[in-house]
Amino acid sequence: MQPLENDKILPFANLGIQMRMEDYLLDKEPVIQRQYQLNPWFTPEFIKLSFQLVAEMLNLEYLKHKFNKGYPQLPNKTVGLVPDGMRPLSAFPDLLCVLMAGCDCALKQHPKDELLLPLLLQELEALEPTIRGRVRMVEKLPPCDAVIVQDMEQNTAVWEHYLQKIPHLVRPYQSSVALLTGKESPQELTALASDISWFFGRPRAAVRTLLVPKDYDFVPLLQSLARQSHSLAQHHQLLNHLEYQKSVRLMNKRFYMDAGTFLLVEDTQEIAPTGVIRYVYYQKPSEVQEWLRERKETIYTVVGQGFDGMETKPFGSVYADKDLSLDTTIHFLQTIG
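Structure (tokenized):
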């Protein structure tokens, strides 16, 4: 067993143990309901899922793997965080990396996601009182030694200009891509349906584009997506989005496939609206490789079996793969040391 060399790991690991207890979320129900009322995109189902994903991240052995020997220590530095608010607790992975580096944090919370993270911080401070005061919730970023921004409003150039004189990491608007061959198992399609439907497909990690062969049979995927997302079928905001998108396509006589809570459309539009998944046909692997290469800056990750020489992640990994959430921030903090 790897020895513990970073003493900041243990409080987070203990918080993870606490969060994985069977009754952990029972007394969180009032704040979960308040957060849902504040932001109807944050349903109780997805809030609880977010807590679960954080709890899985706070595993002792995993934390030692990521943050133990050789992780940069940057005391007396303050890092500003600007999360996008597209999923509950979206700031937590960046905050974890910052606190593990010994930095203080100025956190400009998203106005639609301001109840859950303070709750976790209170629990963390109870386990490790020295963390108290190291995270400040701010309405406007103060002078910082570095800033990390999650941009989902396509304002990357504005942020780059605003932060040009200090070290910064601006994550551009991105989404994930699924590469399909038609040979996927029912289990793989179910996992892909989670990559598409979790959090209504709004975060940057979500799969919003499908690369499919010319003769692809969409029926099994539509069935998996309908089963996986049936709990979203009564969500009024999503349904409003879907009805609008259906109306636009009917008026313009454009074909779409209806999976109940998502529409599948053949489209060249790079950014699909909420509730819409676009598909792009390919005929040979070289076309896929060229398509991905041309859009690499806008792609969060690629899931699927892939072709020879291609690097892909398994279906169902866009949220479950903890490295995807942490590695970019870890690399950035290493560069400012």
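The mean pLDDT is 91. The first helix runs from residue 9 to 19.
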